[in-house]
Sequence to fold (295 residues):
Amino acid sequence: MTGNDRALVDRFLDMLAAEAGASRHTLAAYRSDLGRAAADIDGPVSGASSQDLSRLGERWSHLAPATVARRSAALRRFFTFLIDEGVRLDDPSAALPKPALQRPLPRVLDEDEVTSMFEIASSRAASGEPTALRNLALLELLYGSGLRASELTSLPRGSIRKGQPFLILRGKGSKERLVPISSRAETAVEQWRAHVPAASTWLFPSGKGHLSRVRLFQIVREIAAEAGISPQRVSPHVLRHAFATHLLANGADLRVLQSLLGHSDIGTTQIYTHVDSGRLVEMVNARHPLASRHR
Fold:
């Protein structure tokens, strides 16, 4: 990447951080994708022509479709920035490869399997042992509130208060959303918090910081294994999917689900309509006015 390109990419990333609230991980991914594109173009990205970009399809043919889509998206956004800044007058991004992507269906546990995990966690917590109380609180918040792993592990000590049925959470892209806290989760958190040092910043402390996502992953899989469920089928994200799918199966509105999950795009939430398509067809047959008239 040339010096001029590097300066423009730095300005572009500063814009993403300031205006879009992009995380350090996201910014690093953009920088990497733009750097690799420059190497594949064998010239400055900022000055790339339509012909330069059209050749990327062949050079990226060995990559997974999702990787190609991500790199193309990074370049499109970069060119939009260059036009907004007056660096370029034309947008060559129409020549970028457009791989056909099929969003994979999420892995989901059925309600009986989740119940089995809770039975194990609850029986361990009945002993009053602090680690078991912590694990039950983690499970209640993962499945009962649909938190992301990073959101859960970094919860402040006082984020969940007795009598307050929700918390305001800052999630992806620094977007705030209301997250429901069930009475079960509130009780589990209260029992665990009695063992959290008063000086701790975090609800789930570990060492000098908070519980890591890796450790959360291990805890969830350990509980699954004890419940007789293959650990390979379970992760914190799978429990978040279960939260969404089971809510939808029990009548939750898709827009409400979008808000609870913190999805900026309803298309992301609609994946759950494919997971539970059988129930949706059943609901239309049972409740649509024309269906009842036919009967």
